[in-house]
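Quick sanity check, Fluoride-specific ion channel FluC:
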Amino acid sequence: MTNLFWVATGGAIGAMARYGMGMWLINLSKIFPFATLIVNITGSFLLALLFATQYQQAEPNQQLWLFLGVGVLGAFTTFSTFSLDVVLLAQQGDYIKALLYACLNAFGCIAAVLLALWLKS
C-alpha cells in the first residue's frame, strides 16, 4: 500500500505540472503542439537522469523511483497525447506538420535521454 501512495502522490503532482505546462503554452500550442513536445523532451531527460542517478547506486531508493519516476514523470509525460496530436494533424491534412512533429518528438526525446546519461557518466 505504501508503494501505491508514492505513485499516486507523484502522479497527482505530475498531472498538475502537465496541465500547468499546457496552460502556460496554450497560445503557442494553437500554432503547433509545443506543450506536448516540450513535456515529452523534458520528461524524457528527467526520467533518464533519475534512472542514471538511482541505478548507478548500490541500493537505489525504491520510494524515490516510485514517486518521481513512475508517479511525477509518468503523469507528466504525455506520449499518448503526442500520438493523438500526430493523428489529428494528419486528419486535418497537415501531413508535413504531423511528420515534423513526430520526428521532433522521437529524436528530441532520444537526444534528451542520451544527454542526461552523458551528463551523469
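Posting the structure with no commentary besides this: Residues 86 and 102 are 6 Å apart (CA to CA).
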